[in-house]
Design brief:
mainly beta; 1 helix; binds FE2/S2 (inorganic) cluster
Amino acid sequence: MSLKNQPQNLRIDDHPILGKDDRETWVNIFFDGIKLKAKKGETIAASLSANGIYKFRTTSRFKKPRGIFCGIGRCTDCVMIVDGIPGVRTCVTAVKEGMKIFTQVGSGRWGDEER
Ligand code: FES
């Protein structure tokens, strides 16, 4: 997969109510083998969305794409394989340096690159 022609920073850096985002620390994460920059402290889902990625998994039966739905860890639409663990709710899991994140198909399987 290539992220060519994808917007690379969709973060709101200056919010009219919350103010400027002055977090300076970045970490490297890997999405389906592609290196991305993420801000330390943000969730995996926020980081992927900021990089123009909205499909996090596909459903078991009909292979329909899913991404952020509730955004608060309740619906499981955002689950992905993270560091070999399937079913991780990415909307409530913070990024870490070197984290390997893979699109999940169905309920996923254990292991870094298995889907
Ligand atoms: S979007 Fe619902 S659990 Fe993450």
